[in-house]
Amino acid sequence: MTEYSFGNFTVQGFRGGAIKSGIRGKDRLDLALIVSDKPAVAAGVFTTSQVKAAPVVLGYERLKKGKAQAILVNSGIANACTGEEGMRNAKLTAAMAADALGIAEELVQVSSTGVIGMQLEVECFRFGIPKLAGRLSPDALGEVALAMMTTDTVPKTAVREFIVAGRPVKLVGMAKGAGMIMPNMATMLCYLLTDAAVEQETLQAMLRQSVAQSFNIITVDGDTSTNDTVLILANGKAGNAMIDTASPECALFQQQLDEICRELALKIVRDGEGATKLVTVRVNGAPSKAAAEQAARTIANSNLVKTAFFGEDANWGRIIAALGRSGVIFDAEKVSIAFDAVVMVENGIGRGREVEAAATKVLKQKDFTVTVDLHGGDGWAEIFTCDFSLEYVTINADYRT
Hints:
Blueprint: E1 14-19, E2 31-46, H1 54-63, E3 67-77, H2 83-101, E4 108-115, H3 122-133, H4 141-147, E5 156-164, E6 167-176, E7 189-194, H5 200-212, E8 229-234, H6 250-270, E9 278-286, H7 289-301, H8 303-310, H9 316-324, E10 336-339, E11 342-346, E12 349-350, H10 353-363, E13 367-373, E14 379-386, H11 390-397
Parallel strand pairs: 3-4, 7-8, 9-13
Antiparallel strand pairs: 1-2, 2-3, 2-8, 5-6, 6-7, 9-14, 10-11, 10-13, 11-12
Helix pairs in contact: 1-2, 2-3, 5-6, 7-9
C-alpha cells in the first residue's frame, strides 16, 4: 500500500490506530480504533435508508445519551442484512473494545463498511482488538482513514485550527467513500474530532446543518448506503467556555465545521469510483430552493449526462432532457445552459457549433461547473457530482471478487 504522511492530523485528547486483522486478508489495514481520553460529547447523523446495518441501529440507540469515548471501525464486511446474529456481533465487538480499553460498553460506537450480507469474522476482532488497543497513539489517527477505505484510492482527511475566546481549538475529520454515494442526512463513514467544549444539543444541530450543505449535496452514483454514518466527538480538552446556541463563538465553530465537511465531501466526489472529473451542477431561477435541488440532482445523477462528461462531449441535449423529467415546472423556452463561462443554450436553443467547440474545451478540465438557469424564480441549488467512466463498471462488476 502507498505510504501517506498525515502531518498535522492530531487533536489533543484523542488517540487512534489500525491493524491488519485478517478481515480483508493479510496485507490490508482493516480494523481501527479512535479513543478519547475521557467521555466526549457526541452527535451523529445516520443513513435514512430503510435497510440499516446493525452498527447503524446500535449507534443510533447509543447516541441518544449524547456521549461516546471510542469508535471501532472495520472495512471489508458491512454487517448489513445480517439479522439477529449481526446485531449480536455488533454488540460483541463493541464489548471487546470496551473491555480492552477499560471503558463502559455504551460509550463505544461501532461502524462497518464493505460487502452487504456477510457476517463479521468475530475471531479477527478477538485477535485484533487487544493488539490494537495496545498500540494506540495520538499520531496514528491517520491510520484510521486508511483502514476504513474500500474502493477509495486515497485516504480523505482535513484539519482546521482556530481560536475560541482566546483558546486554540482544533477540528480534524476523516471520511471514506467512493461509490454508493448519494446520501440523505448522512454520508458513507465520516468521523470528526475536536478538543472544543460544545453543548450536546448545539453540537447535534450544527452537525445536521453542516451535513445538509456538504455530504447531502454530493452524488457519485445515486445510491444510498446501508451503513452511512457521520459522528463528531468533542472532548473539551481545549478548555474553552462551553459553546452553545447563545455563545458568540457558536457561529465561528459552525463555519469551521461547515468548511471541513465541505472539504471532505468534495474529496469523496473527486475520488468517486472511476471518476476523472469533479462537476458542480448549479440550477438558478427555479420556483423554490427545493425545486432547484430536485432539478440539479436529476441532472447530476443522469447516467447519460455523466457519460457525456467522461467522453468530453458537450451534449447539452442530455442535460435539458434530464431537466425535463425532473418533475420541476419550468418554461423550456426560457432555459439557458452554460459550461463555466461558455453559454451553450439561450432561451432553450443551442448557440451553434462554434460555441459547442468552446464548451468541449471546458469539459477537458478536471473541474468545471454546469449552470442551468430556468428564469422562473429565485430558487437555486448546487449538487456536486463526477463523470461516469468505464472503470466504474469494472470496479462494481468485480466488487465481491
